[in-house]
User: What shape does this take?
Amino acid sequence: MSAPPDRRRVQLFVTCVVDQLFPDVGESVVKVLSALGADVEFDTDQTCCAQPAFNSGFWDDARPVARRLLGQLDPSKPVIVPSGSCAAMIRNYYRELFADDPVNLSRVNRLRPHIYEFTEYLHEFFDLDMISRLLSDSPSKDGVAFHEACHTKRELGVDAQPKALIDMMPGVRRVNLPQAEVCCGFGGTFSIKYPDISGAMLSDKLDCIEASGANVVAACDSSCLMHIHGGLRRRGSAVRTKHVAELLAERLKQPA
Amino acid sequence: MQPRTTQFRQNSASALADERIQRNLAGLYSGFHSARIDASSATADWESLRARGHEIKSHVIENLDYYLNTLADSVERAGGHVFFAKDAEDASSYVVEVASKRGIDLVIKSKSMLSEEMGLNERLEAEGMEPVETDLGEYIIQLAGDTPFHIIAPAIHKSREEVSDLFTERLGAPRYEDIEDLTKEARRQLRQKFLAAGMGISGANFLVAETGTVALVTNEGNGRMVTSMPKVHIAIAGMEKVVPSIEDLAMFLRLLIRSATGQMLSSYVTAVTGPRLHDEEDGPEEFHLVIVDNGRSRILADEHLRESLLCLRCGACMNACPVYRKVGGHAYGWVYPGPIGAIVSPMLTGLSDGKDLPYASTLCGACKEACPVKIDMPRMLLYLRKELTQGDSYPEHRSADAAERLAVKGWRASASSDAAMRATNLAARLGQALLSRGGEISKMPGPLSGWTDHREFPRAQKPFRSRWPLGDDAARRPRDER
Assistant: This one.
């Protein structure tokens, strides 16, 4: 038996979407983890989990990009991923991608148990009370609708964790979101291949969000939030999108 | 049925534009889909039933030759005839031959998707026979010259008014407003056919290997009449329909019915074993079981797709699928729509013709979650996408277009290093400065224009990698403006 991994030494796989489009989410993750006393490592040479090519069928193009990330992640330390979909790609689908490559497959299998979606990691390694003590009353009172992003929920089984975190946040009321488990219609390249079908699905999602009375819609996946954000802005809706990490980071007590 | 899988784009666009279809499809969420969730939640051992269903059906599919032989022996022992048909033509010809031999010209049918697959009605008509569908939904579809929209609710896209018009026009019926009156009219019409028909053709929800039993699930009782009133009964079934024993049948009935309509039990479950015996009072004089391949052995031969043969045809994946609930059954262009259809329809009718189907999914996983036998549809959709693009199993069907290949090469280059990611980011930020001044990006060119038809395009930011290492003041810095 090797020594149990040190929960305080973690690696961040920030994901390409967060890196390029939502860097605040990455910062929020680091702030929360740092406040919990974790030492966050980030390799700036990381790029993408290869999901866009993989999901489009281009497995030969996905492999070198996935192999790159596989080489960068240390299979002895937790990997924190602020996106359910990218975490699921590594945890569940790298096995398919490297099914015929025993060397990388064994690396995937060693790494898999250390892949954590952000809220999943918080739950696995920290007490809710401990996290709660780090939060101050936020000046803003938010009604938060939680969108159960498909891969977060169905691929990773992460659903109760973010909800518990939201429920614990001071000044936050989690509102009932009708059809919260229904896909927003993004589906990566699906939204480009079939923009009208995707748009019709998005429209239903936005109707449900608006009907919920929330002023914030939150999720554990920046890609879904990007899609929902784009739809809300197009409608001129006042509802904001926020990653659960952002909701937490906003409420962190200022260091003394 | 003539495949129209090549027309997915056009057909889904017309479904999206049709308000009534959109209304009816939206009803599936609060209807079948919610009913299934309620019924499965009310079943204490549901998850272990699903696991067991998966296990038994997988075992059967892995040993299909054995179970089909056992089944054939059992049917023959019970006095029935068994015919193995390699394709639709083969199966239809057998049916025609049996009918001709007996001089039968009126045939009553209970709902069978395999019959749609075979185009059996068209074939019987071409031979001068009259096939009559007796499931209410299928009857409506037949009168309208339409094709099923959903495998368990074939006419779900039709409104009451349309059916009323159809009955007036095709049957000379008075114009009924009430669904009950419409049903009574269909019943009156069908009763005559039931009494006069020389042959009944049914599908099969399950075939029991050890007994040779054909099991049918209906809510209208028409299955029972089709299999017991005419002198000849022919059951047609895909070769994957077999289960080992009567005990297994009992379990699969629970899985199927609860998943299909959310009922704990359907109004009728009919189990037929062979023809009428000399000491029995009713039942057909002659019983035939036609076991049809029609492309299924192609699926069986592919270890990555074999799991799709576990399907019980309950329709739960369609009801759960947010894409099906937008585009409906006709968009998929063949008998089997929705997530399972996106796998089996291209495999049975031509993979490259159906190339748009495996992509018509967000891979959200709602289908897999709903499936009573835990078929991993997302995994198979991903596999088919790979085969259509860069796979080795069906090289003659590869069909990714040049623009997409180019886009993927571009993605791969941008994801090749830190420097490439920074360069991509810089280019994106320069580009967006041209497209909009600080605000949202409302119009993108080329292949991304569809995106901005419905939503604003995201703006690239100064990337996380350039912000790293975050300063000690990271925790104190106010959030950047979006």
